[in-house]
Amino acid sequence: MRTILVVLLAAALCMGQAHALYCFTCEWESSNWKCLNLTKCTDEDSFCVTSIAAIDVVGWKLGKKINKKCSPHCPDSNVHMGIASYSTSCCKSSLCNLFAIPTSKSPPQ
């Protein structure tokens, strides 16, 4: 797996413009392994965003969905409602949203 990630990183860094932002993207997948699609963001996009919707009941993880995308802004979407939560993290460098562990929202820079 490590070799695949190194190859993906090298390929993304060799593509296109020097200042282009690349993010990992996926739409509401149950596993981070399914969120390794590389996307070149538009010129308007400044952030790679990872969002996780999860349901936990007394320590039992009943479900999790992961969404990753390019975005022109960093959404303020961290909500915890008992058993359900929705967390978002943002970062500003290419391929910075590899991991699916948003613990806090990064402040816009």
UniProtKB/TrEMBL annotation:
InterPro entries to which the protein is assigned, alphabetical: Ly-6/neurotoxin-like_GPI-ap (IPR051110), LY6_UPA_recep-like (IPR016054), Snake_toxin-like_sf (IPR045860), Toxin/TOLIP (IPR035076)
Leader sequence segment: 1-20
A GO BP annotation: cell differentiation
Source taxon at top rank: Eukaryota
Keyword Cytoplasm: no
Entries under SMART domains matching the protein: LU
GO cellular component assignments: plasma membrane
Pfam families from the UniProt entry: Toxin_TOLIP (PF00087)
Coiled coil: none
GO MF assignments: acetylcholine receptor inhibitor activity
Annotated UPAR/Ly6 domain residues: 21-109
Location within or outside the cell: Cell membrane
UniProt entry keywords in alphabetical sequence: Cell membrane, Glycoprotein, Membrane, Signal
PANTHER family tied to this protein: LYMPHOCYTE ANTIGEN 6E, UPAR/LY6 DOMAIN-CONTAINING PROTEIN
Protein name, per record: Lymphocyte antigen 6E-like
Species per Swiss-Prot/TrEMBL record: Alligator mississippiensis (American alligator)
Source organism phylogeny: Eukaryota, Metazoa, Chordata, Craniata, Vertebrata
